[in-house]
Specification:
binds pyridoxal-5'-phosphate, seven-stranded mixed sheet
């Protein structure tokens, strides 16, 4: 039996009738741009996260960029980001006109290491973007303490962490603002691009609402930078259907992750951490092996889909290395990128499929592909 890394078709087959009705309603109303479904999704998602406001935008990257802009981050400023993340985290700072400054990650949780943030702070530092990577919240209390001490704003990169909790608080309600992605593979994914900002700051929410819509503070009053980053009503309609099932889908991911963890415990691979008080939502179930490439090749051979999120830390991406060799600068992130492997994970995956994957990993690790 083949086990794909992800399956986007089963979920849509299950929800087809509801989604069709929702899309038909948009067609009947014709409110394609910032229509009723966008406003309702914003209210529902804000309530879900425990934030006062949500503003629908066209991608997770836009959500982060507009959050920074609305919080006053711009040219000449520095924004602290983890070295191990998807490049869009750093790109948000770049697009806002600022400079991303990388910080290494924690070797156990793989999220930004709060103990290293202070060393990266200069008089130009304005913001920190902690990333709730793979669905595990970053250590927000420690990060907020540093931010408060240095008068910095905190924008959560929650693009992979819809529904995750940190000491009882949902991601999206902890920092000054948060950006979520609705990219189709995400825990709450649309059928195309989309994103949303959450914040409890009324002024920030108003600024983002204007920025996403050609800088308009009122109809035909273009007071701010005239960008277009609107979420469209068709995506919002689909996302409203799926939001109703998000907790169920998260519960399924957590159940499958626990099954993986039970089956893989004792093998020579490192498993994802979930410190006390954290609720991981397993956007990705990622393991580490010192023989990652051989393990991945074996799984491919046996029909198991895997991927590497991400093969290179951001400071080594050509755009951010500025033609210089920055290898060695963030050794934890670099080592993680050499060892990580994402296993099949989606709510409709079965326990039997998890058992197949785990059995193949066990076979691969004995004796020729021995990992850590
Ligand atoms: C951690 C992280 N940040 C930012 C983004 C950007 O989201 P989008 O692809 O919707 O722009 C993504 C998703 O791809 C992500 O995984």
């Amino acid at each position: 039996m083949n086990v794909p890394l992800i399956d986007l078709t089963t979920q849509h087959r299950n929800l087809r009738a509801e989604i069709n009705l929702a899309l038909q309603a948009v067609l009947d109303r014709g409110d394609f741009i910032l229509g009723q479904d966008v406003t309702r999704l914003e209210d529902e998602f804000a309530a879900y996260c425990g934030a006062k406001y949500a503003i629908g935008v066209d991608s997770g990257l836009s959500a982060l960029e507009l959050s920074l802009r609305a919080l006053g981050v711009g040219a000449g400023d520095e924004v602290i980001v983890p070295a191990h993340t998807f490049t869009a985290t750093a790109a948000a700072a770049t697009l806002a006109g600022a400079t991303p400054v990388f910080v290494d990650v924690d070797p156990q949780t793989w999220t930004i290491d709060p103990a290293r943030i202070e060393d990266a702070i200069t008089e130009r530092t304005k913001a920190i973007i902690p990333v709730h990577l793979y669905g595990l919240p970053a250590d927000m209390n420690a990060i907020l303490r540093v931010a408060e001490k240095h008068n910095l704003v905190v924008v959560e990169d929650a693009c992979q962490a819809h529904g995750a909790k940190y000491h009882g608080q949902r991601t999206g309600s902890i920092g000054h603002a948060a950006g979520f992605s609705f990219y189709p593979t995400k825990n709450l994914g649309g059928c195309g691009d989309g994103g949303i900002v959450t914040t409890s700051d009324e002024k920030v929410a108003g600024t983002i609402r204007a920025l996403r819509n050609c800088g308009q503070t009122a109809k035909n009053v273009h007071e701010l930078l005239p960008l277009n980053h609107r979420l469209d009503s068709m995506q919002a309609a689909i996302l409203r259907v799926k939001l109703k099932y998000l907790d169920e889908m998260v519960a399924s991911r957590r159940r499958l992750a626990a099954h993986y963890t039970r089956l893989l415990a004792g093998l020579s691979v490192m498993l994802p951490a979930e410190p006390p008080g954290y609720e991981h939502v397993y956007h990705l179930y990622v393991i580490r092996s010192q023989n990652r490439d051989a393990l991945q090749a074996h799984l491919k051979d046996r029909g198991v889909g895997t991927a590497v999120h991400y093969p290179n830390p951001v400071h080594l991406q050509p755009f951010y290395s500025n033609g210089t060799n920055r290898r060695g600068q963030f050794p934890v992130a670099e080592k993680i990128c050499d060892e990580i492997l994402s296993l099949p994970m989606y709510p409709e995956l079965t326990e039997e499929q998890v058992e197949i994957v785990a059995a193949e990993i066990a076979t691969a690790l004995v004796p020729s592909v021995q990992g850590r």
